[in-house]
Every structure is written in structure tokens, then in C-alpha cells.
Amino acid sequence: MRKYLWIFAFSVVALGACGKKEGVPATAAAPAAPAAPASAAVAVNSEEKVLNIYNWPDYIAKDMVANFEKETGIKVNYQTFENNEALHAKLVAGNTGYDIVVPGAVFAKPQIDGGLLAKIDKSKISRYSNLDSAIMEKLGTIDPGNAYLVPWAWSFTTVGINKAKVAKALGAAPNPLPLPDNAWELVFNPVYTAKLKSCGIAYLDSPTEVIPPAMHYLGKNAYSNDPADHRAAGEMLGKVRPHIRMFSSTMIDDLAGGKACVALGWAGDINIARGRAIENKNGNEVEALLPKTGGLIFFDTLAIPKDAKHPNNAYAFIDYFLRPEVSASLTNELGYATANKASLSSVKPEIAQDMAVFPDAVNLQKMVSPASFSNEARESMSNVFTHFKKGN
To answer: 381: which residues sit within 8 A by CB, 6+ positions away?
Structure first.
């Protein structure tokens, strides 16, 4: 039942995005794989058969690029970045050479307002109607009329744990502790972090990914533009700073391999870590928690830069991605939820029933709806985060 309940839940929970991951771009080889599905009906006109994609690490199904290349003859050059700030800086500088980028929806707002993205020609996307109207309506609060953005995937910022290591660390003498009712305590309450530092606490390495949940934990607006709220979050974070082992926005292997037992991260990446630990048979049982006070929803999107040299090839890829089985492959392999309503029947039942992928209506109702930050607020949070990382 939950497989379809999440669609209704979106009608009452506003979606946007801080963005999946938050660095320096890294080049990644396009994922290789066999056999392609049926032909893609797209017009590439006289464009060079090249497509340059700039996406987050670990954020594409392994066969997707290779199958698209085989079917269309379009060569995909695939690069990755670790945070929205890195992508935004590239777009502002111009002449990126990219044809598709994957911004978080909230970061996409200033990119739209700044004229950095091209309007989407929906007539070139034959499967556009596969997108869920409830999600598109909520995305419209960031992108009026859905003029610039096509949803790629969505998830939420939360806390991930290595169940055995956390239980052992919290149960250690003196003063053993139970797992808290509110998962945020594990990363923001020094009573808990002091015990968990022994097995490794990891934080995302981005101000816009850490300061908002910290403000939420304090009972403030997670998307406050008030510098006083940012400073309050910084003061709270300062109390747990000695207990944080690492800052990383590519912590999947750290969590899967046991280097970190607690992570402030994205549910989708925590789900990937869980699967990787199972594949490696290393005995680490990883779980994405659902905080009592709610996680922070984010929504990542496909966009075409204004100066893209191969826009028709970009449309070809977007249309290919919107095939039900292709969108479902991202959800099935990575544990990030799809906005493609036509793909739900192709999502594996165990994933469709997993609340760390598709939260039920009760948990969705608790989650924090995103909003845009002002440029001044981003600068304020960046300053607070820098001082926090330095420990001063």
C-alpha cells in the first residue's frame, strides 16, 4: 500500500531541495554496461554526437550511460562534483561545457533567476507526462511553470547508523545510554556524541547541508536567513566538534566499511552504504533512521545550462531517463525515490515498501519543507561552518 501512498503524501508535504550532495569536481568514467533497451525517439539534428553531464558521485544507475550510448551513438562525458556550491560556481563562471547538470532545486532557484539555465522545451521530451503532477506542482514553488527543471530523484537528510557499533558504543560503561527517540540526538547532543566518537561520527562537508538540520534540531526554522540563528547553530555544533571524526560528502564507503558508525547524511547514500555492506559481507548492518522531529527533504533536478552546446542531446537523455524502467533502475540500484509515476510498477517491492526510500504519509508530514536562502544567508552559514570545522 505504501508504494502508492507516497504520491498522495506529496500533496500535503512541500518539496524542494537543498541538494543531494555537497568540494572540488572529480572526473568519473561513464559507468559501463551491456545491452540497451528499445530505441530513443529524439531529434539530435546536426549536433555533434556528444553529451557532457555533470552529476553527483554515486548518483546514476550503472547501465544507464552505456545503454544510452549504445542506443543513440551519442558519446557521454560524465563528470562529478561533491556539492551544490561547486556546481553553482561553475555555472556563474560560464563556459562550463556541460549540457546537463544536476542541481538541488533550492540551489537551482538563483541559477534560474540569474539566467544561468535554459528553458526546457517540453515538446522535445515525449515522456514528460510520466512525471507525477503532485511533485511537479511542489517543484513549481521553486520553478514556476516547471520551466527549467526536470526532477531526477528525491530523498531526505537524516542520520545513518551502523547498528551494532552504535549499540556497543552507547552501551559502554560508565553511563550506558539507550538509542534516543529522536535520531538527531546522535549527531547534535554531546551526551551522545561523546560516546559515539569512539566508533566514528561523520558529517556532510557543506554549510547548507549541516546548518539547516542543526537549526531544525534547535527548534528554529531550518531555512532561516537570520544570522543569529546561524550563530546559534554554530554554538551548538561547537560543543560536539571534538567528537566529529570526518567531514565528507562521499561517505558511503566509510559507513559501509565501518570507518564511521554514525553519519549526518542523505538517506539515499545511507541506503547505498547498506547495500554495499551486504554485498561485501562484512557484517556491518547500516540503517537510515527517521528522526522523530522529521528529516529535511531534498529534491535534485536535471537542468540544461544556458550555454550548452548539445541541448538536443540533452533532451534525448532526459527523454530516455523518463522511461519507466530507466527511472526505476536508479531507485532500485541506489535507493533514491523517483518522481516518475509510470516507473512505480517497476520498482522492486522491497524498495517500494522501504520507508528510508519512500517514507509513509506520517513521516512525510513531519519532514521539513525546503526554502531558498538569500546570498547573505549563504555567506553567513559558510562563515559559521568554517569556524565550526576549525574548532573555534
So the answer is: 207, 208, 211, 230, 373
Sign of CA dihedral 256, 163, 287, 265: negative
Gap between the Cα atoms of 211 and 224, Å rounded? 10
What is the pLDDT of the chain when averaged over all its residues? 89
Looking at residue 223, what is its pLDDT? 94
For 203, the enclosing helix (H) or strand (E) is: strand 201-203
Distance separating alpha carbons of residues 82 and 56, to the nearest angstrom: 6
For the chain, list the domains and their CATH numbers: 2-155+297-361 (3.40.190.10), 157-296+373-390 (3.40.190.10)
Residues 155/336, Cβ–Cβ less than 8 Å:
yes
Asked if residues 303 and 108 have their Cβ atoms less than 8 Å apart, the reply is: yes
Q: Over pLDDT 90: what percentage of the chain?
A: 79
Task: Determine contact, residues 301/321, Cβ cutoff 8 Å.
Answer: no
Cβ burial of 349 (10 Å; 0-12, 13-18, 19+) is exposed
What tens digit of pLDDT does each residue of 33-72 get? 333 334 444 444 568 999 999 999 989 999 999 999 999 9
